[in-house]
Design brief:
Blueprint (H helix, E strand, L loop, with lengths): L6 H14 L4 H8 L3 H19 L3 E4 L4 E4 L3 H33 L3 H26 L6 H6 L4
Antiparallel strand pairs: 1-2
Helix pairs in contact: 1-3, 4-5
């Protein structure tokens, strides 16, 4: 049975380990004595609390599956681009998979209010597209296809 570890304790263990190197989840769990779930809880604590306190952004390399504290600006840019693309995809799925079909089929007060939010969401897509373009990347094609106004 695994020992109960609080969010703060998990975060501090993961942060301490990351100060010594970069880790895959398995390696990080071995070094810290945490479970996979506790490792992820620790990462969330670092992003939510310690990143602001220590100004240490965490980056993830999808090719090597390693988590690390950012050492170079280019790492941060790549990570931000990946996170923005993921966010855009998730937001498009929520918008087009839930709100848009509901708006077509029903006319509830919540759906009516959503129309105002939908304009803001569309502007967010546009802004993310501009930022990605400035960073030398582009909006994922599936999001571009979903951005059609309904």
């Amino acid at each position: 049975m695994t020992a109960r570890v609080g969010r703060e304790q998990a975060g501090n263990r993961v942060f301490e380990a990351m100060c010594d190197g970069d880790w895959t989840i398995a390696e990080g769990c071995e070094v810290t004595g945490l479970t996979r779930a506790q490792w992820h809880t620790g990462l969330a604590y670092i992003r939510d609390v310690l990143a602001e306190e220590h100004a240490e952004p965490i980056v993830y390399d999808a090719k090597t599956h390693r988590y690390a504290l950012a050492k170079f600006e280019v790492e941060v840019d790549r990570y931000i681009i990946a996170r923005m693309k993921t966010f855009a995809i998730q937001l498009a799925r929520i918008r087009n998979g839930t709100f848009t079909p509901a708006r077509v089929k029903f006319e509830t007060p919540g759906i009516t209010r959503f129309r105002r939010v939908d304009d803001s969401v569309y502007r967010v897509f546009t802004d993310i597209g501009f930022v990605l373009e400035e960073m030398g990347d582009e909006m994922p094609a599936k999001v571009q296809a979903m951005m059609i106004r309904s």
